[in-house]
Amino acid sequence: MGVSLADAVTISARNVVKAFGQGSGVVRALDDVSVDIRQGEFFTLLGPSGCGKTTLLRLIAGFEMPTEGTILLDGTDITTLPPNRRPVNTVFQSYALFPHLTVAQNISFGLEMLGKPASEVKARTAAMLALVKLEAMAGRKTSQLSGGQQQRVALARALAPQPKVLLLDEPLSALDLKLRKEMQIELKRLQLETGITFIFVTHDQEEALTMSDRIAVMSAGKIQQVGSAKDIYIHPKNRFVASFIGETNFLHGTAEAGAIRLATGERIDVPGLPAGGEATVSVRPEQVRLGLPSDGLKATVRTLVYFGTDTHCHLALADGTEVVARLQSPASGEAGLVEGQAVGIRFADGAVQRVED
Amino acid sequence: MAERGFQISRLPGFATMAVAAFVLLYLPIVTLVIFSFNASNSVAVWGGFSLHWYGDAWANQAVKDATVRSLVIGVSASVLSTTLATLAALGTTRRRAYRGQTLIYVMINQPLMVPEVVTAVALMIFFGIIKVATGYQGLGYLIAAHTAFCIPFAYLPIRARLESMDLSLETAAADLYATPWQTFRRVTLPLLAPGIMAGAMLSFVISLDDVVITEFVKSGGQDTLPTYMLGQLRRAFTPEVNAISTMLLGVTVVLLTAFFLLTRKRD
Amino acid sequence: MSPAEEQALRASARNGWLLSLPALVVLALAASGPLLIVVYYSFLTANDTGGVIRQFSIEGWRSIFLSYDIFEDRYTLADAHLKIFWRSVWLSLTTTALTFVIGFPTAWFIATRPPSQRALWLFLITIPFWTNLLIRTFAINEVIRNEGILNTTLLWLGVISEPLRIVYTETAVLIGMTYVYLPLMVLPLYATIERFDMRLLEAAYDLYASRWTTLRRVILPIVKPGIIAGSILVFVPSLGAYVTPRILGGGKKMMIGNFIELQFLQGRNWPLGAALSVLLLIIVMAALLVYVRVANRDRSAGHG
Q1: Which of B29, B30, B121 to mutate to test the interface with C (most CBs of C within 10 A)?
Q2: Please, which residues have CB within 8 angstroms of residue C224's CB and are 6 or more apart in sequence?
Q3: In chain A, is it the N or the C terminus that has fewer CB atoms within a 10 Å radius of its CB?
Q4: Terminal alpha carbon distance of chain B
């Protein structure tokens, strides 16, 4: 792919460190983070609470300053620029709608602060109200709106000044499941329509997988892996990423050329694995196939848990290692297996991925 | 009320005692108010409804002067103390703890801790020296003293309001290109307004009610309503004092009700 | 910390000080600062015509406890002063106890009302709390004085044949102070009782405790912080009371506050008045310090 506009980097964080506290109580919320976010992409920062994702977002918005490192916007250093001078807007987790202003006044706030002429303010506010389908609510106080409507106002308010980057801090976490699904589609639509770079923070892996162009998985103040949803799911780089995104089985053993030898003495093919030392592989439960005891790794069925579409089969290898297989539930509802039954385990092609610890 | 079985939180005699406490708390005040409308010259025997004690009080030049003085001092002290308290509240909340912050808290709350009579004596000596040195005898001393002891009363509701205010609102304003001053004008101040109003009312009530400090600091002929009443109490009791008390009471109740409505949590 | 972060922190602290400064200046000039002058005056020599002579002396402090007998040329214990001190402390302690006896059931009653009613009951306690102390003292005086409503009613009922002489006695001061300071006891007690977990009562009764044992062994220990707060809030202003003893004690049953006034307004002995003021301040500060200590200990122990 050649250098096109779509590949231009909008936000670039370079060796960013953010430490809180003093003396021995120093906590590094961000520990040497570098990441490039491309123009027009839907980029998600995904991780458990306390992983540093919101801190990174606040540094990009300018609400806090990094302890070390720089942040660039279109190649310009904005590390110490105050938030009111950055063409970056935020959708807050709590929405932070001004309770003393109406819906329309909330949306026009940023435009007024930029000193736009009244006619432009009016026109853009109207356009934003239409974009989020809240024309009928223009004169209402924000406290009279439902959670979903407040969410839309927050979006319209942040989009109105046409920022280069829109930051979204867990914006869907306060909504119920049904509304959350609707808003996910809505957000994706708005991002495509406006062409603005979205940086989205969430701890919800499903949200991240369904909406993002690229995901950065974060943990303990570091970015663990950056890639597309498929990339990260199929080729997790390390144990943390593999277990945080979806469910997985880890198998541990000694590396041999192109294979791993388990404690049971059995071998699993891992194409490309160099010999020597210990190694861990990850296999997703849906890639586990069951067959006759003579076929593959020897295992015993421990428990069967019925989930509707799927049935989870918990198995034990000869040395007691647990492996979970996710099987499609047959029409009769019976998996054709009984607890205590001896089976053989095989893995789908390419399903065994080596992961770092 | 018929209560059946064992009421878990009921303690024997407590309800009776509580009701008695409320009756005892209000009986004297209500009596005072009722007898301010008494036609006869007694504060114990009812002689029919009349407003003539109010008329008498109003016709009394000393009462009129004291009322004006109380209002001038009350309004000045309330405006000044609320302004200073608002600035101090902005300076002591919502920022990382800094050196000397505790000292500021102690200074601001000091009038609540020191016995009034001690402050009164201290101000009498200090302002006495200044009066001699400058020759100025005006209401400035009373306004300064009232402003000082009203500051904590204005500070507390404003600070409470600031602390309960969602910090992300100001962050959002800055995010939407508002300068720090625009953020203050367009977001912080409108949201803080109920707290400021509450602080102003509270400090007005406190100033209007002060006896001890005013009694010690005032120069000759600078009676406020409370010190005028205190002076009257040395002589015979007249329902005229009841009438003045009732008016002061009315102002207090109205302002307090407004205060509660303003500081009540929404939703 | 990066230089930019440090700079922002310094600016924040500087702005904090600058914003607080105007209030601090007024407080220093018209509240805290003059207290230092009182300390200074307590070590000067009294001027017989009022005021002070700028000459060091500890006579002000000594005369709190000792009085000089000119005829025998020696110091004797200042009985009159000690009596006023003793009366102030005794009346303040009794007031505290009385407000607790009345205030605890009242606070309990309010805290056990349905939540929708509580605000109203609390408001009813708050109105007297904010009402002019002078008016309230005046109101209670109207009730208890010789021709007041209490005597008039009792005489009319025939319970007594001549009026009870209550005003200008220690009893009158005690009744008055209990009346005016009662809300100061109820409010902190309510605040603690409101957070009291009523399920603990179920547990206590379940474990065979009687109502009285439950009160003594479960309720009182848990609401102790509120009791201490209320006691300090009543004790401190009682000790420094001026208006109530002046009106109800009628100049005969003086408390420290009135005695201090006497030294200044009648121009008798300024250094003694200043020393008394400082002493009163020290006692009050000590009481507040005890309160802060206890409050902090209870907080760190996981109560409150």
Answers
A1: B121
A2: C298, C303
A3: N
A4: 32
